[in-house]
Please model this.
Amino acid sequence: DVQLMQSGAEVKKPGESLRISCEGSGDTFTRFWIAWVRQVPGKGLEYMGIIYPADSETKYSPSFQGQVTISADRSLRTAFLHWSSLKASDTATYYCARAILGGTDAFDIWGQGTMISVFS
Amino acid sequence: QSALIHPASVSGSPGQSITISCTGTSNDIGGYNFVSWYQQHPAKAPKLIIYDVSRRPSGVSDRFSGSKSDNTASLTISGLQSEDEAVYYCSSYSSTGTLVFGEGTKLTVL
Model:
């Protein structure tokens, strides 16, 4: 089965940097787009952006443009989500998700989520 | 970029059918046939149950169906079962070139 395996939970302080990862199996990183989705505790899903690892084309939601950086290393079959300076409001669970083949708007395979806690 | 509008909660008894609505604008739901629905159980990752308005991924029960009229998409669950109790989210492609999610509807099976 195709899976997306995310890195573990993190506890950070405001102002610190962080990169979380999402590793895939099979041909996920050569044929599919990979998205990142945020879920603040007790709240709904928020689309952050998406990357095509085959050529690193990236698109950001306007709400997250400039706030995070999405990247991927096709050789490692891994996508990344990076913050240069965390805020308390970044506390959330972050999911990576694979888009359906040929599309960018529906996600059929999800990682298990990475919980990020930011507090001083 | 506004979220799509869901009812906060719906409920139904086992065996019944329920419908969850999701209202957007002509810039998202009304303008594109790229509406998806996700089911999320507590502390679990979301699961895709409908995409492209009415298509079901392989392995998803045919008790789940989707439709769209103007700026409103709908998810219908027939033959309600206890395991259907979850939060349901819609999403739509948007004219901004990205995706927008709904706020989520909590389904309670009585």
